[in-house]
Each structure stands twice: as C-alpha cells, then as structure tokens.
From TrEMBL:
InterPro entries: DNA_glycosylase, HhH-GPD_domain, HhH_base_excis_C
Any one Gene Ontology molecular-function term assigned to this protein's record: 4 iron, 4 sulfur cluster binding
Keyword annotations of the record: 4Fe-4S, Endonuclease, Hydrolase, Iron, Iron-sulfur, Metal-binding, Nuclease
Highest taxon of source: Bacteria
Domain HhH-GPD: 35-190
One Pfam match: HhH-GPD
SUPFAM superfamilies, per the entry: DNA-glycosylase
UniProt source species: Budvicia aquatica
Protein name as it appears in the record: Endonuclease III domain-containing protein
Protein's GO biological process: base-excision repair
C-alpha cells in the first residue's frame, strides 16, 4: 500500500503546486472557509462577489442580518452563514484584525478557540489554521476519507484519530499540509469523486479499489 508521503509525491508529480487558498487576505480566507460549507466553490465566489468591497470585518459585523443574509444567498444556508460570519468577524476584530498577532498564538490553543466559534467545526478550523494562520493541522474532508479508504487504509471514523494517523507520517510542515489538501481536492475532482473515474488516476496501479474492481471483473 502506498505510504502517506508516497501518495503526496504521486499527486504532486501529476498536478504540481496548487497555490491555495484562493483569497487575497487572511480575512477573506476565513470568510471563504465558512461560505464553502455544504456548497460548491462557484457559489462561494458569487457570494463573495456580492459582498464586493464590503468584505471587511467591521462592515460585516455591523451589517443588518437580513442584508448580509441576502448577499450570502448564493452560498446556501445564508441565514446560518450570516450569523457565523458576524461572530467570526467579531472574533477577528477582537484581535484588532491583526493576523500576525493571531499567528503568534499556540496552534493547539488557537484551534481550541476557533472550534468554540459557532459553526466552526474541525474541518473548517483546520482549513483556517493552515491557510490563514500557518499552523500545521492536516485537513480531513470527504475527499480525504474517500481517497485513503479506497487506497486501502483502515480509515478511523473519528476526525481526530484520522488526522493524527496522517500527521504521524508527515513532518509538521504547513506548506506540505497546504499543498497536500489542495492536491487531494484536485484528485477528487478529476478522478476520485463519489463515482470514481480510475482510468488515468495517478494512484491507479497501487489502489486497493482498482484491484477489487479488477478481481470482480
Ligand atoms: S484509482 Fe480510482 S479509487 Fe483509486 S484513488 Fe484513483 S480514482 Fe480513487
């Protein structure tokens, strides 16, 4: 079975650097991480486009709920997301919007704080930690679970167990975790979707699922 570093190597050789996250500032990244919950990125882009130059923590935290929800409508769950963005913006403002000050916080403590914010679950928190705050926490999402279980890993149900299992096999490098997650998403979109398209997949010759398919004819 391919090791965690070997999978990375194969994906990087195929797809190269992904330049994630697509945001112009740490705050925009945080907003995108909330908006992308349960929707496609193209819908997030529409909502971000609606926000336009109002995409500032002070503006969003002060905006009337209905107005904000209406702007977020394309991203779905817009009432929930409006509330979450308002709280997230207030939290960001409590650090004077100083990203470097937040980056100086210990990673585990910062993760704990993010997880205490309404609507920020583990996957969202780890995305924020990697892509906005330069903290190495491996991100587990649906693509990650699908890929590793198809490759042949015994994937733990628990997010934390799975995250630690992968982190034990990698150096704690934020650049590596940044790239690895983006590469898994690239593979998930091109090949390892809910219905896999294995032909031409860079992991095809070593994938447990491919072998099962071959055995089953
Ligand atoms: S060979 Fe198929 S199942 Fe295996 S990782 Fe690639 S797309 Fe997914």
């Amino acid at each position: 079975m391919l090791s965690v570093p070997e999978i990375y190597q194969r994906l990087f050789e195929r797809y190269g650097q992904q330049h994630w996250w697509p945001a112009e500032s740490a705050y925009e990244m945080l907003v995108g991480a909330v908006l992308t919950q349960n929707t496609h990125w193209r819908n997030v882009e529409k909502a971000l486009g609606n926000l336009g130059n109002q995409l500032k923590p002070q503006v969003i935290s002060a905006m009337p709920h209905d107005q904000l929800a209406n702007l977020l409508r394309p991203s779905g769950y817009y009432n929930q997301k409006a509330e979450r963005l308002r709280l997230l913006s207030q939290w960001f403002i409590s650090y004077d919007c100083d990203v470097n000050a937040i980056r100086r916080i210990d990673g585990a403590l910062l993760r704990h704080t993010l997880l205490s914010l309404k609507g920020v679950g583990r996957e969202t928190a780890d995305c924020m930690l990697v892509y906005a705050f330069d903290k190495p926490f491996f991100i587990i999402d649906t693509y990650t679970r699908r890929l590793f279980s198809r490759i042949g890993y015994d994937v733990p149900e628990s997010y934390e167990h799975f995250r630690l299992l992968i982190e034990q096999q990698l150096p704690p490098s934020v650049e590596l975790y940044n790239e690895y997650h983006a590469l898994i998403v690239a593979l998930g979109k091109e090949h390892c979707a809910a219905k896999p398209c294995c032909s031409g997949c860079p992991l095809e010759r070593d994938c447990h699922k491919t072998h099962l398919n071959t055995l089953n004819g």
